[in-house]
Design brief:
- The chain has 13 helices and 11 strands.
- It folds into 2 domains: 110 residues, ATPase, nucleotide binding domain (Nucleotidyltransferase, domain 5, 2-Layer Sandwich), CATH 3.30.420.40; 166 residues, Nucleotidyltransferase, domain 5, CATH 3.30.420.
- With 307 residues, it is an alpha/beta fold.
- The longest helix is centred in the last third of the chain and has 21 residues.
C-alpha cells in the first residue's frame, strides 16, 4: 500500500512517499524536505506572512500532486508549532487545504510527540522490538519536544517553545553573530532548559531528530553535500557538536552555505539550532545521541496506512 506523510514545520515541509509493509514500517520511495520557512518573522509579528504562506502552499500542493501521480492511496498532513501559535492559523490552514486538496491538521503538542515517536522508532535504532526505555529528542524550528517511552509505548512528553528559527530571529541579529549575541542566546536557552527534568539510565535508547540535528551531523561528518544515508544512524557526540557550533558561529551564513551540506535557509539558522542541541545534550547529561532522519512524516504515513 502506497502512503504519504507531510510534516509542515516552522522551517521545513518534510515529505515522505513510500510503501507500507503491513508491520508498521515504511519503505521510502520519495523522501525530501523543502525549507519554506513558514514561521519566518513569527517571533516578532505573531503571524504567518503572506510570502511564507505562498512558498509553503506552493510546495505542499506540488508534493501532494506528486504523491497522487505515484499512486498513493492514503496520505496525512500535519502542521506543528508554527500553526499552534500563529494568530492567523485558521486563514493559513484554509490556504494550505486549498493548495493541497487535502485536509491539513494542526497537531497538538501531544499529537506531534505521538507521530514523532511512532516514526522515529520505526527504524533500526537501539535494541529494537523489546521494552527498553527510550528517549526521543525532536529539535525543530519552533519547538523542542522530549518524549519518553518503553518499547513502542510512550510514557510522557515535554515541549518547550524554542527552536532554531525562533531563537535566530530573537537573538542573532548580526552575521556572523557577535560574542554578546551568542552569550545571550546560550543564557536564554539554559533558562528554558531549567524547566526540563528527564531521567536517563545506562542502556536507554536516545534518538535525536529534526533539521538542527541532521544538519549538525552532516557538518560533523564533513559531508560535501547532505547525504541522508550517511546521516541516518550517525552517533553524534557532545564534544564534536560543541566544536561544530563554535566553528559555525564564526562563519557568515554564506560561508556556511558554501560548505555544501547546508542549504541557504538551513545555514541561516544552523548556529542557533546547534547551540540548542548542544546545550540540551549537556543539560540531560548525554555524551552522544543516535541521529535519525525519521520523525513526524514517518508517523503520519504509518498512521495513514491504517485508514
Amino acid at each position: 500500500m502506497r502512503v504519504a506523510g507531510f510534516d509542515i514545520g516552522t522551517n521545513s515541509v518534510r515529505v515522505l512517499i513510500g510503501d507500507a509493509d503491513g508491520t508498521g514500517r515504511i519503505r521510502p520511495g520519495v523522501r525530501v524536505g523543502f525549507a519554506t520557512r513558514l514561521g519566518e518573522g513569527l517571533a516578532h509579528t505573531g503571524r504567518v506572512s503572506d510570502e511564507a504562506l505562498e512558498r509553503t502552499a506552493r510546495v505542499l500542493g506540488k508534493s501532494v500532486r506528486l504523491a497522487r501521480a505515484l499512486g498513493t492511496s492514503a496520505m496525512k498532513a500535519g502542521a506543528t508549532h508554527v500553526l499552534r501559535v500563529a494568530s492567523n492559523a485558521r486563514q493559513v490552514l484554509g490556504t494550505l487545504d486549498n493548495a493541497a486538496g487535502l485536509s491539513v491538521k494542526i497537531l497538538s503538542e501531544e499529537e506531534e510527540a505521538y507521530y514523532a515517536y511512532l516514526g522515529a522508532f520505526s527504524g533500526d535504532y537501539g535494541p529494537g522490538a523489546g521494552q527498553e526505555r527510550r528517549l526521543l529528542m525532536d529539535v525543530g524550528g519552533g519547538s523542542v519536544t522530549l518524549t519518553q517511552g518503553e518499547g513502542p509505548t510512550r510514557t510522557g512528553s515535554t515541549t518547550l517553545p524554542i527552536g532554531a528559527v525562533t531563537l535566530t530571529e530573537k537573538f542573532l541579529r548580526h552575521d556572523p553573530p557577535t560574542e554578546e549575541e551568542m552569550a545571550t542566546l546560550k543564557e536564554n536557552v539554559r533558562a528554558e532548559l531549567d524547566f526540563v527534568s528527564v531521567s536517563i539510565a545506562p542502556g536507554d535508547s536516545v534518538v535525536a531528530i529534526g533539521g538542527a540535528v541532521t544538519c549538525m551531523a552532516a557538518v560533523c561528518l564533513e559531508l560535501p553535500f547532505f547525504d541522508s544515508r550517511r546521516v541516518d544512524g550517525h552517533i553524534l557526540g557532545l564534544e564534536e557538536t560543541e566544536r561544530a557550533v563554535e566553528m559555525l558561529s564564526r562563519m557568515t551564513a554564506s560561508e556556511r552555505e558554501r560548505m555544501g551540506c547546508l542549504g541557504r535557509r538551513r545555514a541561516e539558522i544552523a548556529v542557533a539550532g546547534g547551540v540548542l542541541l548542544w546545550l540540551l545534550m549537556r543539560h540531560l547529561g548525554l555524551h552522544a545521541v543516535v541521529v535519525s532522519i525519521r520523525g513526524v512524516r514517518y508517523g503520519l504515513a504509518i498512521d495513514a496506512a491504517t485508514l
